[in-house]
Amino acid sequence: MWNEHCSYKSSKLHLKNLPTKGKKVIQGPGENAGVIDIGDDDAIVFKIESHNHPSFIEPYQGAATGVGGIMRDVFTMGARPIANLNSIHFGSPQHKKTKNLLRGVVHGIGGYGNCIGVPTIAGQTSFDESYNGNILVNAMTLGLVKKNKIFYSKAAGLNKPVIYVGSKTGRDGIHGASMASAIFDEKIEEKKPTVQVGDPFTEKLLLEACLELMAGDSIIAIQDMGAAGLTSSSIEMASKGKLGIEINLNKVPCRESKMTPYEIMLSESQERMLIVLENGKENMAKKIFDKWNLDFAVIGKTTNSK
After folding, report:
1. What's the predicted TM-score (pTM) here?
2. From the centroid of its chain, how far is CA 175?
3. What is the DSSP code (8-state) at residue 195?
4. Alpha-carbon distance 138 to 248, whole Å?
5. CB 133 within 8 Å of CB 92
6. Domain edges within the chain
7. What would the pLDDT profile of 107-147 be if each residue is shown by its tens digit?
8. Which numeric CATH code is attached to 4-149?
9. Which of 305, 271, 151, 304 is nearest to 222 (CA)?
10. How many Cβ atoms from other residues are within 10 Å of residue 297's Cβ?
11. Topology of domain 161-303, CATH
């Protein structure tokens, strides 16, 4: 968890100097995405994130899962994604890797969004030899939400059911978070298994299922599974609520046999969410996710341990 991708240990000092408060700011740093009041009881939810290392290793999937991740961050807040943007930076056009990286990244960004029905409306591209050894891939998503239907990731209450929804857990993306702080060398091909593999059609189903559940009042907290997977999402929800979360890994839906607890906890399989529900809402929620052909499992509960 103590790597740049998860903790921002090197850049946090500089990020703290940026303005984060204002009359229109509903949510600043500390949540899945920022929220700005745009009037008429509406708000814009936005998130920008880099996916540099994964895109350098496997340009299509690296860029695609970067887009998928920030779209999940946006609809985790209760918003429907409406637009994607990007800022991408490559090495010299004459460099042997640039053409393949450019093609893969552009197709990955556009392809994932198009499958979900979210257009890429603007972008920025530059070339400089300083990026020969590692490109920059920044993706951004905007979403629209009603101010009274914003959802947060802070767990609350004791003995509340902790729900796993979305795709099954596999071995893809394990150590993806720590890889994001690694130095690349000639063995870069060996790192490809650490790059997550996205499925935008499943994410579309997850988007619609989550928004349908959000129309009611059953969700206490919700968090997407990004870097470090189930480990990061459960810790973030529990720590924000000053609670503990007890998880039974035998109940986690897995698509591969004989996965170890270590693999299940650190898998970065995409299109997954962790939800804390109100007691007694499990069956109602399960019907929604069953309708959208998504996995639904009660894998734990909140506790008073920290």
Report:
1. 0.91
2. 15
3. S
4. 36
5. no
6. 4-149, 161-303
7. 999 999 999 999 999 999 999 999 999 999 999 999 999 99
8. 3.30.1330.10
9. 151
10. 16
11. Phosphoribosyl-aminoimidazole Synthetase; Chain A, domain 2 (3.90.650)
